[in-house]
Amino acid sequence: MRPTEPTVAAIVREQTGVAWSRARDLCAEGRVSVNGERCLDSALRVPPGAVVIVDERAPKLRTGTLPENAIAYFDRDVVVIDKPAGILSVAYEPGDKDTLVERTRALLRRMRGRGFEPGLGVVHRLDKETSGLIVFARTANAKSILAKQFRTHDIERVYHAIAHGSVAARRIETRLITDRGDGIRGSYGHFRRPRGGIPPEAKRSVTHVRPIAPLAGATLVECRLETGRQHQIRIHLSELGHPLVGERVYIRDYAGSKIESMRPMLHARVLGFTHPRTGQRMSFEREAPDDFRAMIESLRQ
Length: 301
Hints:
By secondary structure, the protein is an alpha+beta fold. It is built from six helices and 14 strands.
């Protein structure tokens, strides 16, 4: 059965009219209370009669930290982190200070002691609202080698996603462009009839989709990346007619019944690569976070 009690984020949205992402941020910033107690968990179910207060002017909590168990692997060359949803991987603007890079640096300093200054090189990113595994390089040589593996698509990347509708197994290959014709990313020729040859900036993109479990109005799917383009899974599933549950951008063409969610239901579950120094093949796996699992349970048929 689907839970009948609304989440804290849903009530925040109802009271303020803000987007899901902002409702989640207000909770994380400590600006929401339930029955007089500060509530940081935006996915908490609120029982009938509870009093939820949103104070957007309340003092913001200090930047969050990562727990030690967020580290899936660590050595002198690389660090593999299980990224929480709702955090930027890296800064996009000068004011972006609360990023996964900075939280990881702070965690490594905390573990190794005062005076330790960890260098971290970015070789790939996850969207702010995507959870799961990401690797940072700790030396220039490691960064160069890992970056080459990403360019040559020698990285193993498996995601779990919750997509609208009944999704069948298939291999999707398109050419992604930054503007499909209406201002958003998409596959060349999908939104508008192609004219002439494929533009040189279009990037070959391949996703292997496999259904895992049917849900009420949705499907839990595995998405294995053969290439790794920005928003690739979100775009391919949307163009397949099965946008992610919680999708905000690539859902404008979807006419079916939409399932509400605080974020796009996408989790980077498996990450594999060849160690840049030892040459050993390594693979890591992390379960989806609580909000993802709660969405699955709420949609169990």
